[in-house]
Specification:
The protein is built from one helix and 18 strands. By secondary structure, the chain is mainly β.
């Protein structure tokens, strides 16, 4: 018995659709080509009491090549985080508590490693456009005229979005607008003119700027896929 061509095409289309749905539903894990990563910014804006601009080097690793795609699950650690002068020579008023940076006349204590957790992806499976991760447990020191204070605690988080090209290679990384505000002042270190915000204030402290992300120690792009 001959099957009409129209029926065959309809059946084929349904089969392909079912395969796509099954593939999307089974994409429950996050796969990275390399565990060790470095992200760099030549000029990152840190807005508090005006806009501060700094260069930034962030280094860390994913726990494994394949991690569970579960929202707020711990997928990696940041083990190096250093602020410095911008590529244009602007001085930086922000210091990471990394055991290296100088803050308020002394070397900062080391609060690293900081946590990287998975949040979400953007786009349609199987080719996604970006992956969002959260940085938490960080601590920074800020030195601006008449104000020296610390920000960050265990509940503060900064969302970063890693953008991917069609080949799934990571092209850039940027703080997510509206999702990277932190404002917990842990301690004021000096306030001679009493013009600093009161302890515990919440303000528009935020990051902005596009950086690059590569394999640690190389210019090789990392790739990120959902499997």
């Amino acid at each position: 018995m001959r099957v009409p061509i129209k029926s065959m095409l309809t059946g084929l289309g349904v089969s392909l659709l079912l395969c796509a749905v099954v593939g999307a539903a089974s994409a429950g894990r996050l796969s990275v080509s390399n565990q060790n990563i470095r992200a760099t910014w030549s000029s990152l804006e840190f807005a508090i009491g005006g806009v501060q601009r700094c260069s930034l080097t962030l280094e860390g690793s994913f726990h494994a090549r394949t991690n569970s795609k579960v929202e707020r699950s711990l997928v990696g650690l940041v083990t190096r985080f250093i602020f410095g002068r911008t590529s244009g020579g602007e001085s930086c008023s922000v210091r990471a508590f990394n055991g290296v940076d100088r803050y308020n006349g002394t070397t900062t204590p080391n609060t690293l490693p900081w946590h990287l957790t998975y949040e979400s992806f953007q786009g349609s499976l199987p080719l996604i456009g970006s992956v969002r991760v959260l940085l938490s447990r960080f601590r920074f020191g800020v030195e601006i005229p008449s104000c020296v204070f610390q920000v960050g605690n265990e509940t503060d988080k900064i969302a970063f979005e890693i953008f991917l090209e069609a080949g799934r290679g990571a092209t850039s990384i940027t703080p997510v607008e509206g999702r990277n505000e932190v404002g917990t002042v842990i301690r004021l270190d000096r306030d001679p003119f009493r013009i600093c915000p009161p302890l515990g204030f919440r303000s528009g402290i935020r990051f902005a700027g596009t950086g690059s992300i590569t394999l640690l120690g190389a210019a090789t792009r990392i790739t990120i896929t959902l499997i």
